[in-house]
Structures are given as structure tokens and as C-alpha cells.
């Protein structure tokens, strides 16, 4: 069997779920299907998204909830739950990661994947669609776009119907983009406003301008946007360097954990399990990520990028504990996630000949750093010689702040 040749028109795939927060809530409540439903903002003051049934009753985005209920008495109002949105967004990334190792989440609900090198695994566009949608709930109404470049794939995904794919061949990219509004171009909002003032509202009008004139007005970013409007977007998919090499541990708490002591006890057990995982054994960690969900659906998360990789459980636990001890928690935790990312390939580190003395010094420095974070200044001082020959003892030495 011959190996399929690379197709330049299917280099980038984009998985999009517009209004992911709204779709998540509807997926969790299938009984609301076919009824007037709106999603409120965080302040529970205005309408952010509305179903077709609510719009038929006269409900519009931006309307106050009081006016919306007055127009639609049977209206159901849903509040956004960041923790739920984060969970579904992670499932989108995992679905795309099952197709390609090069995955980028540009924003919540928008995930790109580089398809180069996957032609033998997924020879047809329908094979790509089946592989991606197998990891996403159909109730979220996912949309998929495939094209030769980033912007074309993104707009193709927005044009696709739920659970379908739109493929834009390379030769048709410029025509496909011609009628799209310029707000989708990779330009700052003020530059988009300038284009509207100049009467340039579509990508086709923008692409018809001379590139030299565009770069003279909008700089290097204008040249990139000009190429994108012609279907030649040069921006690649930029995956996180540690996205694939990671170990994740979860804890479901029933009842929710209220005290910090209970939270720390659960995290200590999770850290031990994570370090015993075959993928993390005898390796060092570059990123520690904590994520927790409250019983009301609020999300608390903290990422700590390490200045140098750590593989010692004691030092990692000191770091994890400090992230929780000095944090302001939003409420009782019902679900906790610990992630160790950026696992290095090294399995050991050359120790000093004076390992015991070095270890004690590192422990002292680590302790002083945590005390300095807690009290604002170092509570430990060191004795230094000032005038050792002086006849008065208090003049011979001085105390200086110990700052590792």
C-alpha cells in the first residue's frame, strides 16, 4: 500500500464550539431543550446568550434579566459555571490531541491542531471528523473546519453546522474568505475600527489593497493580516511545550472539603500518586498546576512554573503546600486536580561530594524563602565579622538579614 501524499489544503483543523459556556449548561440540562433559556453574565444582570425560543419571545443579547422575564414569563435563566466550562474545554483539547500531537487552545471553545503527518492515519476528511467528534459530546454541537491555513480553518469551523465539517481547498481559500468581516483578522481592535472608518468591511476588500500600503499603515501585523485575508495565513499552530508530557491526579470530595488541613491532606496523597506514576518516575517537573471546583461551580486554579526542574518529593510538597496556605479560597472544594507538567528527560542529577552539607543548605534556603513570603521580610539573620579586634563584644560582630 502506498503512503498518501500530503495534502496542503488540510494542514490545519479547527474545533469550535461557539458560546461554550451556554452549550455546557444546556448539555447538563437536556430537559431544557426546546424551551426559552438564556445565559446571564457573572453579575446576573444581563443576557449573554439566548436560545431560538427565547429570541422568538423578543429576548435579545444585552437585555436586562428583568426585561427578558417580562417578555418571556417561562424563561429559564442559567448562570455560568467556570469550573464546568474548564472541564469541557479540556475535553476539546483532549479530543484534538487524539488526532495530532500539535494542539493549541487559542481561546475557550476554539482549539487548533496541525494535521501534517497524519495523512496515513486519517486519509479522508470524514476520517478526521469521526476521530475528532468521537471525543466530544454531540450535545455541545461541535463544529469542525479544515483548511491549509489557520484563519481559513477557523472561519470554516464557524460556518460549519453542528457536528459537521467544512473543508476549504487551497485554491478556493481566497474566494471563501472574500465576504468574511474584517473583525476576524489578527489585528488589534483599534486597527479594525480604522478599517471600518476607511470603508473596508470584508476580507476581500482588505486583500485587494497593495501589501506595501497595508504595512505602511498597520506595520508588520498588517502584513500578516493581509496574507491571512488572501488565504495564506503564515501563523502556525503553537502548542504548549509541556502539553503532552504530564501526569494528572483527581480527587472527588464528598462532602466538599472546607478546611485547609483537609485540602492539604488530599493534595499530599495526590502528589505521592503522581510521582509514582510510570511517566513521572525518576524524572523532574517544570510546572505544577492546581485546579479546584467549588460546590457552586466556581473555579480556583494556580500555575507555578519552576525556575529549575524539581524531582524531590519533599521540595515539591513544600511548593504545593505554600500555594494553598497563602491563597484565598473561593469556598469548599468538591473536586481537586493536581497536574505535573513539563517532565524532563533526565532521570538523575549529579550530586556534590558534600551532599549532606549541600542538602542542609538547600533546606535552609527554602525555609527562609517561604518565611520571607509569609512575613514580608526575612526573619533569619546571619552573624558577620565587623571589627573582630575591638575590645567591646557588641562591636566585633553584626547581624545582617539572611537573604538566600
How would you describe what is shown here?
- The protein is α+β, with helices and mostly antiparallel strands and 404 residues long.
- It folds into 4 domains: 8-19 and 83-174, Alpha-Beta Plaits, CATH 3.30.70.270; 178-229, 5' to 3' exonuclease, C-terminal subdomain (DNA polymerase, domain 1); 246-349, DNA polymerase, Y-family, little finger domain (Dna Ligase, domain 1), CATH 3.30.1490.100; 354-404, no CATH class.
- The protein is built from 14 helices and 14 strands.
- Strand 5 (103-107) and strand 6 form a beta hairpin.
- Helix 1 packs across helix 4 (82-97).
What's the architecture of the largest domain, going by CATH? 2-Layer Sandwich
| Main sheet attributes: strand count, strand direction, barrel closure | 5 strands, mixed
| CATH-defined topology of the largest domain | Alpha-Beta Plaits
Helical residues, percent: 25-40%
The number of distinct structural domains comes to 4
CATH superfamily of the largest domain: Reverse transcriptase/Diguanylate cyclase domain
Instruction: Report Rg.
Output: 27 Å
Average pLDDT, all residues? 86
What gap, in angstroms, lies between the N and C termini? 63 Å
Shape: globular
> How large is the count of helical segments?
14
Amino acid at each position: 500500500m502506498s503512503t498518501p501524499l500530503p495534502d496542503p489544503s488540510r494542514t490545519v483543523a479547527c474545533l469550535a464550539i461557539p458560546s461554550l459556556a451556554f452549550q455546557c449548561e444546556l448539555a447538563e440540562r437536556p430537559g431544557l431543550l426546546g424551551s426559552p433559556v438564556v445565559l446571564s453574565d457573572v453579575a446576573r444582570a444581563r443576557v449573554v446568550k439566548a436560545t431560538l425560543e427565547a429570541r422568538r419571545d423578543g429576548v435579545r443579547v444585552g437585555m436586562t434579566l428583568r426585561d427578558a422575564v417580562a417578555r418571556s414569563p417561562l424563561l429559564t435563566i442559567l448562570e455560568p459555571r467556570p469550573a464546568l466550562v474548564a472541564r469541557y474545554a479540556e475535553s476539546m483539547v483532549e479530543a484534538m490531541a487524539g488526532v495530532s500531537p500539535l494542539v493549541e487552545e487559542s481561546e475557550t471553545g476554539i482549539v487548533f491542531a496541525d494535521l501534517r503527518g497524519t495523512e496515513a492515519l486519517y486519509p479522508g476528511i470524514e476520517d478526521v471528523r469521526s476521530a475528532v467528534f468521537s471525543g466530544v459530546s454531540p450535545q455541545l454541537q461541535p463544529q469542525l473546519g479544515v483548511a491549509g491555513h489557520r484563519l481559513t480553518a477557523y472561519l470554516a469551523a464557524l460556518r460549519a453546522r453542528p457536528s459537521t465539517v467544512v473543508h476549504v481547498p487551497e485554491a478556493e481559500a481566497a474566494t471563501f474568505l472574500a465576504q468574511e468581516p474584517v473583525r476576524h483578522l489578527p489585528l488589534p481592535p483599534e486597527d479594525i475600527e480604522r478599517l471600518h472608518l476607511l470603508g473596508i468591511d470584508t476580507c476581500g476588500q482588505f486583500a485587494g489593497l497593495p501589501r506595501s500600503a497595508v504595512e505602511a499603515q498597520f506595520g508588520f501585523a498588517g502584513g500578516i493580516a493581509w496574507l491571512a485575508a488572501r488565504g495564506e495565513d503564515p501563523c502556525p499552530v503553537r502548542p504548549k511545550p509541556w502539553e503532552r508530557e504530564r501526569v494528572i491526579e483527581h480527587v472527588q470530595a464528598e462532602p466538599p472539603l472546607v478546611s485547609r488541613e483537609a485540602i492539604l491532606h488530599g493534595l499530599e496523597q495526590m502528589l505521592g500518586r503522581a510521582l509514582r506514576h510510570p511517566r513521572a518516575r525518576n524524572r523532574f517537573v517544570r510546572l505544577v498546576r492546581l485546579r479546584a471546583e467549588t460546590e457552586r461551580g466556581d473555579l480556583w486554579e494556580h500555575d507555578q512554573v519552576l525556575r529549575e526542574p524539581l524531582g524531590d518529593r519533599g521540595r515539591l510538597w513544600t511548593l504545593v503546600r505554600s500555594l494553598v496556605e497563602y491563597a484565598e479560597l473561593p469556598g469548599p472544594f468538591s473536586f481537586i486536580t493536581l497536574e505535573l507538567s513539563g517532565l524532563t528527560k533526565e532521570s538523575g542529577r549529579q550530586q556534590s561530594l558534600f551532599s549532606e552539607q549541600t542538602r542542609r543548605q538547600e533546606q535552609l534556603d527554602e525555609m527562609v524563602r517561604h518565611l520571607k513570603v509569609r512575613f514580608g521580610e526575612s526573619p533569619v539573620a546571619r552573624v558577620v565579622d565587623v571589627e573582630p579586634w575591638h575590645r567591646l563584644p557588641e562591636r566585633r560582630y553584626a547581624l545582617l538579614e539572611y537573604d538566600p
